[in-house]
Write a structure and sequence with these properties.
The protein is mainly beta. The protein is built from three helices and twelve strands; from the N terminus they run H-E-E-E-E-E-H-E-H-E-E-E-E-E-E. The chain is globular and about 45 Å long.
């Protein structure tokens, strides 16, 4: 079966509309560049891969100015944003040169940037593999360490090209 046929491919605009119907959490991926300056980008394209060993993946546009630093450093932090992080999400999605002057952050035990005020949780990762797929690179990484903030905030969610938050329908103590 030929899976590379282009004549049966959906057009990119329709594909993006379909994918916007799937709500996604928002994260900022951070690392250090070759001059040890913090850099980062916003993404909704990430998921867990394995619990043992703990691993996740994140998809990064090949045109991202942060991608070369992610590939050369081979380590990064995934900052899972809470509902107060809308402005941070927009900032890290921008082409602004110094995104870190406008946010509070501190170094992880490995020295990588953790976004202090707007993260629900963070994961310090070591790159295992980078797989080019179309206009993106899939980064598969092992999670070395991380932490979760107390559950005082809801996560920031992206749905149909709009920001929102998630509210549970069932209390965490109850099971359907």
């Amino acid at each position: 079966m030929d899976v590379t046929r282009q004549d049966d491919r959906i057009d990119p605009a329709t594909f993006l509309s379909i994918m916007s119907a799937f709500p996604a959490g928002i994260a900022v991926i951070t690392t250090l560049n070759e001059n040890a300056q913090p850099v980062g980008l916003t993404t909704t394209a990430l998921c867990s891969v394995s619990a043992d060993p703990p691993a996740l993946l994140v998809c990064v546009d090949r045109g991202s100015r942060t991608l070369p630093s992610l590939l050369s450093r081979k380590e990064f932090v995934v900052n899972f944003l809470r509902n107060s992080g809308c402005a941070t999400s927009i900032l890290f999605a921008s082409k602004k040169a110094d995104k870190f002057s406008a946010v509070r952050w501190h170094p992880s035990p490995g020295g990588l940037p953790i976004l202090t005020e707007d993260s629900l949780a963070w994961a310090d990762c070591s790159l295992l593999e980078a797989v080019p797929v179309g206009d993106h690179v899939v980064l598969i990484a092992e999670v070395r360490e991380g932490d979760v903030s107390p559950p005082a905030h809801e996560p920031l969610v992206y749905f149909q090209r709009s920001f929102g938050t998630w509210t549970p329908l069932v209390d965490g103590e109850e099971k359907p």
